[in-house]
Specification:
The chain contains five helices and no strands. The protein has 112 residues and is mainly α. The chain folds into two domains: 38 residues; 45 residues, no CATH class.
Length: 112
């Protein structure tokens, strides 16, 4: 049956295809396309739910940052405007100054 809705092509691994087919048959969905649409819809709803989670006890993380980098960011936030301005000035300089800042922050973390 033709449709006016947008179409796209998706490449799946064999394992993902098996998972889609298992989902499709367990829900008695007639086509792979409808099964994929349903899985995308479920995934988007879950993502939206996670993003809207207002539990303040849940730590805020940034993808790709190590725990140490997250602690550096926390220290930076505690410095106030004057300290942050000083560090921002250092960072705008040469790489040796960046290494110096890193060494200073590491020393502070070791004292805590």
């Amino acid at each position: 049956m033709p449709t006016d809705r947008p179409r796209l092509t998706v490449t799946l691994t064999d394992e993902m295809l098996r998972d889609v087919e298992d989902f499709r048959f367990s829900r008695r969905i007639k086509t792979q396309s409808k099964a994929l649409s349903e899985l995308i819809k479920i995934g988007m709803q879950r993502l939206e739910s996670e993003l809207n989670d207002t539990d303040e006890k849940k730590p805020v993380t940034v993808d790709g940052l190590t725990d140490q980098e997250m602690r550096f960011l926390a220290l930076y936030d505690q410095l106030g405007e004057g300290g942050q301005s000083l560090i921002d000035g250092w960072l705008s300089l040469t790489p040796p100054n960046r290494r110096l800042l890193l060494a200073i922050l590491q020393a502070i973390l070791q004292q805590q």
